[in-house]
Amino acid sequence: MAYDPDNIFARILRGEIPNDTVAENEHALAFRDIRPQAPVHVLVIPRGAYVSYDDFAANASDAEIAGFHRLVAQVARSEGLMLAEGSAGFRAITNAGEHGVQEVPHFHLHLLGGRPLGRMLAQA
Protein backbone atom coordinates (compact mmCIF):
# COMPACT_ATOMS: atom_id res chain seq x y z
CA MET A 1 0.00 0.00 0.00
CA ALA A 2 1.56 3.28 -1.10
CA TYR A 3 1.04 6.56 0.72
CA ASP A 4 -1.68 8.64 -0.93
CA PRO A 5 -1.17 12.36 -0.14
CA ASP A 6 -4.87 12.93 -0.80
CA ASN A 7 -6.11 10.41 1.80
CA ILE A 8 -8.69 11.70 4.28
CA PHE A 9 -6.20 12.00 7.16
CA ALA A 10 -3.72 13.97 5.06
CA ARG A 11 -6.57 16.26 4.10
CA ILE A 12 -7.56 16.66 7.77
CA LEU A 13 -3.95 17.55 8.62
CA ARG A 14 -3.96 20.20 5.87
CA GLY A 15 -7.20 21.68 7.25
CA GLU A 16 -9.23 20.74 4.18
CA ILE A 17 -11.66 18.57 6.16
CA PRO A 18 -12.92 19.53 9.64
CA ASN A 19 -12.48 17.23 12.61
CA ASP A 20 -13.41 17.11 16.29
CA THR A 21 -9.93 17.61 17.74
CA VAL A 22 -9.30 16.09 21.16
CA ALA A 23 -5.60 16.99 21.48
CA GLU A 24 -2.55 17.71 19.38
CA ASN A 25 1.15 18.36 19.55
CA GLU A 26 3.82 19.14 16.98
CA HIS A 27 4.04 15.49 15.89
CA ALA A 28 0.48 14.14 16.09
CA LEU A 29 -3.23 14.94 16.05
CA ALA A 30 -6.02 13.19 17.98
CA PHE A 31 -9.67 13.51 16.99
CA ARG A 32 -12.97 11.72 17.49
CA ASP A 33 -13.90 9.00 15.03
CA ILE A 34 -16.91 9.96 12.89
CA ARG A 35 -18.28 6.39 13.27
CA PRO A 36 -17.50 5.58 16.90
CA GLN A 37 -17.45 1.92 17.88
CA ALA A 38 -17.38 2.64 21.63
CA PRO A 39 -18.28 5.53 23.96
CA VAL A 40 -14.69 6.71 23.59
CA HIS A 41 -13.26 6.30 20.07
CA VAL A 42 -10.41 8.61 19.25
CA LEU A 43 -8.01 8.37 16.32
CA VAL A 44 -4.40 9.44 16.79
CA ILE A 45 -2.39 10.15 13.63
CA PRO A 46 1.16 11.33 13.08
CA ARG A 47 1.63 14.56 11.15
CA GLY A 48 4.18 12.82 8.92
CA ALA A 49 3.33 10.76 5.81
CA TYR A 50 3.54 7.19 7.13
CA VAL A 51 1.42 4.40 5.68
CA SER A 52 1.37 1.96 8.60
CA TYR A 53 2.76 1.27 12.05
CA ASP A 54 5.75 -0.61 10.68
CA ASP A 55 6.52 2.28 8.30
CA PHE A 56 6.23 4.76 11.18
CA ALA A 57 8.34 2.67 13.58
CA ALA A 58 11.07 2.16 10.96
CA ASN A 59 11.20 5.64 9.46
CA ALA A 60 9.91 8.27 11.89
CA SER A 61 12.37 10.26 13.97
CA ASP A 62 12.74 9.54 17.67
CA ALA A 63 10.99 12.84 18.38
CA GLU A 64 8.03 11.89 16.15
CA ILE A 65 7.71 8.48 17.79
CA ALA A 66 7.89 9.92 21.30
CA GLY A 67 5.49 12.76 20.45
CA PHE A 68 2.97 10.34 18.96
CA HIS A 69 3.01 8.01 21.96
CA ARG A 70 2.92 10.90 24.45
CA LEU A 71 -0.21 12.17 22.70
CA VAL A 72 -1.81 8.71 22.97
CA ALA A 73 -1.15 8.80 26.72
CA GLN A 74 -2.48 12.36 27.00
CA VAL A 75 -5.70 11.35 25.25
CA ALA A 76 -6.07 8.23 27.40
CA ARG A 77 -5.80 10.45 30.46
CA SER A 78 -8.16 13.17 29.22
CA GLU A 79 -10.76 10.60 28.13
CA GLY A 80 -10.68 8.76 31.47
CA LEU A 81 -9.02 5.61 30.13
CA MET A 82 -5.81 5.50 32.23
CA LEU A 83 -5.62 2.30 34.27
CA ALA A 84 -3.53 4.11 36.89
CA GLU A 85 -6.43 6.51 37.40
CA GLY A 86 -9.10 3.84 37.91
CA SER A 87 -10.22 3.02 34.38
CA ALA A 88 -11.47 -0.49 33.68
CA GLY A 89 -9.37 -0.54 30.50
CA PHE A 90 -9.21 0.35 26.85
CA ARG A 91 -8.04 -0.97 23.52
CA ALA A 92 -5.44 0.53 21.16
CA ILE A 93 -5.68 -0.80 17.61
CA THR A 94 -3.77 -0.10 14.45
CA ASN A 95 -4.62 -1.87 11.20
CA ALA A 96 -2.03 -2.50 8.49
CA GLY A 97 -2.52 -3.62 4.92
CA GLU A 98 -5.10 -5.87 3.33
CA HIS A 99 -5.11 -8.59 6.00
CA GLY A 100 -5.30 -5.95 8.73
CA VAL A 101 -8.26 -4.35 6.92
CA GLN A 102 -6.57 -0.95 6.74
CA GLU A 103 -8.94 1.48 5.05
CA VAL A 104 -6.88 4.69 5.01
CA PRO A 105 -3.23 4.61 3.85
CA HIS A 106 -2.06 6.87 6.69
CA PHE A 107 -0.88 5.30 9.96
CA HIS A 108 -3.50 5.77 12.67
CA LEU A 109 -4.23 4.33 16.07
CA HIS A 110 -7.76 3.77 17.33
CA LEU A 111 -8.13 4.35 21.08
CA LEU A 112 -11.38 2.78 22.27
CA GLY A 113 -12.95 2.47 25.71
CA GLY A 114 -15.83 3.33 27.97
CA ARG A 115 -17.46 -0.12 27.93
CA PRO A 116 -16.46 -3.80 27.74
CA LEU A 117 -15.21 -4.34 24.19
CA GLY A 118 -15.41 -8.10 23.92
CA ARG A 119 -12.86 -10.38 22.32
CA MET A 120 -10.39 -8.95 19.86
CA LEU A 121 -10.97 -11.76 17.35
CA ALA A 122 -13.43 -14.60 17.21
CA GLN A 123 -11.98 -17.86 18.43
CA ALA A 124 -11.13 -20.25 15.64
Automatic annotation (TrEMBL):
Q: Matching PROSITE patterns, A to Z?
A: HIT_1, HIT_2
Q: Where is this motif: Histidine triad motif?
A: 106-110
Entry-linked Pfam families: HIT
Enumerate the GO terms in the molecular function aspect: hydrolase activity
Keyword match RNA-binding: no
Q: Please indicate if the UniProt record lists Hydrolase as a keyword.
A: yes
Record-annotated active site: H108
PANTHER family xrefs: HISTIDINE TRIAD HIT PROTEIN
Q: What is the name of this protein?
A: Diadenosine tetraphosphate (Ap4A) hydrolase
- Cite the source lineage: Bacteria, Pseudomonadati, Pseudomonadota, Alphaproteobacteria, Rhodobacterales
